[in-house]
Amino acid sequence: MEKRYLLILTLLLGLLPLFTFGTSAQQDTTRLRVVVNLVQLNVAVTDNKGNYVTGLHPLDFAITEDGTPENIATFEEGNGPTTRLVDITADVGKNTADESASAEGRSRIQDSSSSLEDRPETLSSTLAGANVFILFDTSNYMYRGFVFAQDAIADFVRSLESADKISFYSYSRNLYRAAALTSDRSEVVRGVRTSVAGDDAALYNSLLLTVQDASQYPGRKAVVVF
Question: Is residue 191 a part of any domain in this protein?
Answer without folding.
Answer: yes
